[in-house]
From TrEMBL:
Keywords: Iron, Metal-binding, Monooxygenase, Oxidoreductase, Phenylalanine catabolism. CDD domains: pro_PheOH. The keyword Metal-binding applies. It comes from Dokdonella soli. InterPro entries: ArAA_hydroxylase, ArAA_hydroxylase_Fe/CU_BS, ArAA_hydroxylase_sf, Aro-AA_hydroxylase_C_sf, Aromatic-AA_hydroxylase_C, Phe-4-hydroxylase_mono. The keyword Iron applies. Residues 1-297 form the Biopterin-dependent aromatic amino acid hydroxylase family profile domain. The lineage of its organism: Bacteria, Pseudomonadati, Pseudomonadota, Gammaproteobacteria, Lysobacterales. This is Phenylalanine-4-hydroxylase. Pathway: Amino-acid degradation; L-phenylalanine degradation; acetoacetate and fumarate from L-phenylalanine: step 1/6. It catalyses: (6R)-L-erythro-5,6,7,8-tetrahydrobiopterin + L-phenylalanine + O2 = (4aS,6R)-4a-hydroxy-L-erythro-5,6,7,8-tetrahydrobiopterin + L-tyrosine. Belongs to the biopterin-dependent aromatic amino acid hydroxylase family. Gene3D superfamilies: Aromatic amino acid hydroxylase (1.10.800.10). Pfam families: Biopterin_H.
Length: 297
């Protein structure tokens, strides 16, 4: 889940299939209405990613994912997951129809509520979907909400979002890039090598392999201001991944007041998604193989 512009098309399951609706309210998970196909889609993706992520996802993701004891062949019930979350870090999942206006999204996070899209993709969309669905939100984002440091980071991000929203559109762009390159597409360096923690990666088989094993992308050490200036990809694999050493590093780096940082960055140009700078701590310089020439957002 990320935020989007207000008025974005969302959808609802009806007897005509999924049709657009415009609510940004919290909705009850309509668990009894999931079809056999929906459960099967979950099962296929769940079992496939559990295999792909062995040795690729970070320790914290794998261990916390297991704590939920999700059945492999049925869509989990938010109520069951919420019992585990409540005891561990006080986070709570709330059902939503889809992408939310930024301020609504930030307000949820600031109050330790994570919005989860209730509907799941169709069987022909197993490998790619242009917007978050249940599998991305639940499988990708929820495990790390059991990690105390990451749980605090997500709340701090929500509060920072409310604040940035009051500052202006440019501040929001800077903050969104931080979310993109950490929460959605972050890598972490562990004892045995680079590992994945970003939810946009863990919910994608192709990108789980690509981000670690392909020679194409850059892998660069975390640098807050650098990330806040860096454009990104929404329709291809990332050209650059940023690597943290620990969730504590992420928490410490983002603790300061961002106001002066937003003001400083407003004077500076953005950085194309694939550029490597002389000041970067480079783990791997990408070959750029297969990169689209334009389309950075
Ligand atoms: N420290 C940030 C601010 O003052 C808030 C924040 C925390 C933003 C963590 C992102 C992540 O705006
Ligand atoms: Fe997401």
């Amino acid at each position: 889940m990320t935020a989007s512009e207000p008025q974005r098309v969302e959808r609802q399951q009806t007897d005509k299939g999924y049709v657009p609706v415009y609510t940004t309210a919290v909705v009850e998970q309509p668990w009894a209405s999931y079809s056999r196909t929906d459960h099967q889609t979950w099962a296929t993706l769940f079992q496939r990613q559990r295999e792909v992520l062995k040795g690729r996802a970070c320790r914290e993701f794998i261990e916390n994912q297991e704590r939920f004891q999700m059945a492999p062949n049925a869509i989990p019930r938010f109520d069951d997951l919420n019992e585990v979350l409540a005891k561990a870090t006080g986070w709570q999942l709330v059902g939503v129809e889809g992408l939310l206006p930024e301020l609504v999204f930030f307000d949820h996070l600031a109050n330790r509520r994570f919005p989860v899209t209730w509907w799941i993709r169709k069987p022909e969309q197993l490998d790619y979907l242009a917007e978050p669905d249940l599998f991305h939100d639940l499988f990708g984002h929820v495990p790390l909400l059991l990690n105390p440091v990451f749980a605090d980071y997500m709340e701090a991000y929500g509060k920072g979002g409310v604040k940035a929203h009051g500052i202006g559109a440019e501040a929001l762009v800077n903050l969104t890039r931080l979310y993109w390159y950490t929460v959605e597409f972050g890598l972490i360096r562990q004892d045995d090598g680079l590992r994945i923690y970003g939810s946009g990666i863990v919910s994608s088989k192709g990108e789980s392999i690509h981000c670690l094993e392909s020679p194409a992308p850059n892998r660069i050490g975390f640098d807050l201001k650098r990330i806040m200036k860096t454009r990104y990809r929404i329709d291809t694999y990332q050209k650059t991944y940023f690597v943290i050493d620990s969730f504590d590093q992420l928490m410490d780096a983002t603790r300061p007041d961002f106001r002066p940082i937003y003001a400083e960055l407003a004077e500076q140009p953005s950085i194309p998604a694939g550029d490597v700078l002389a000041t970067d701590a480079v783990f791997n310089r990408g070959t750029g193989e297969g990169w689209a020439k334009d389309g950075d957002v």
